[in-house]
Automatic annotation (TrEMBL):
Protein name, entry field: Aldolase
Pfam hit, one: Aldolase
Subunit and partners: Homotrimer.
Family stated for the protein in its record: Belongs to the KHG/KDPG aldolase family.
Gene3D superfamilies according to UniProt: Aldolase class I
InterPro entries: Aldlse_KDPG_KHG (IPR000887), Aldolase_TIM (IPR013785)
Top-level taxon of the source organism: Bacteria
Keyword terms: Carbohydrate metabolism, Lyase
Keyword Lyase included in the entry's annotation: yes
Matching PANTHER family: 2-DEHYDRO-3-DEOXY-6-PHOSPHOGALACTONATE ALDOLASE-RELATED, 2-KETO-3-DEOXY-6-PHOSPHOGLUCONATE ALDOLASE
Metabolic or biological pathway, per its Swiss-Prot or TrEMBL entry: Carbohydrate acid metabolism
Length: 196
């Protein structure tokens, strides 16, 4: 189940890394840096053919390794789902909640992390079986949003995503997020904020 997957991978280091828009060499460099810092989930967003080489390289790099899994982000249609599943992505992420895509991903055996930004979206995704949800864009929603939504939805596990950096990551975790995602702000030093 998706909940079991994210729980298992985020329990030690409560962080994901999003490698968006990098060439293949840079993607692999950042994959290695994330893995060295104990990050278990790496997302490579899908933007058509320009992202194919980077996703393939990351998936192939992770395949023989223990403790790290590569998935695809921006999975917003069945067509994209088919593409990333064929490449070998092991989980999917979306900026919003697309019920048909989310269900199809799980049916394929790929845990899915849907994006949410309102109470209605949180409730709808939860009713569809998605306990782990991507709070996006987190920097706009703020840590207070996490605290407020956890009150009526105590069973939801939020991954704060969008605008997360070393300066605010801890505030989202302290507000009740179960994990954060670092995108362009990712550096090995950024993760130190989660360990202090």
């Amino acid at each position: 189940m998706p909940a079991d997957f994210f729980e298992r991978h985020l329990v030690v280091t409560p962080a994901m890394v999003i490698l968006r828009g990098h060439d293949m060499a840079t993607t692999l460099l950042l994959c290695r840096a994330a893995y060295a810092q104990g990050v278990a989930l790496i997302e490579v967003p899908w933007h058509g053919e320009e992202s194919r080489k980077s996703l393939i390289a990351a998936v192939d790099w992770a395949r023989p390794l223990a403790g790290v899994t590569v998935g695809a982000g921006t999975v917003v249609s069945r067509e994209v789902l088919d593409e990333v599943a064929e490449i070998g992505a092991r989980f999917t992420v979306a900026p919003g909640f697309h019920p048909e895509v989310a269900a199809a991903s799980v049916e394929r055996g790929l845990p899915h992390l849907p994006g949410v930004a309102t109470g209605t979206e949180v409730g709808t995704a939860l009713a569809a079986g998605f306990r782990w949800q991507k709070a996006f864009p987190a920097s706009v929603l703020t840590p207070a949003w996490i605290t407020a939504l956890r009150a009526p939805f105590p069973g939801v596990r939020f991954v704060a995503t969008g605008g997360i950096d070393a300066g605010n990551a801890r505030s989202f975790l302290d507000a009740g997020a179960r994990a954060v995602s670092f995108g362009s702000s990712f550096t090995p030093e950024a993760l130190s904020a989660l360990r202090n």
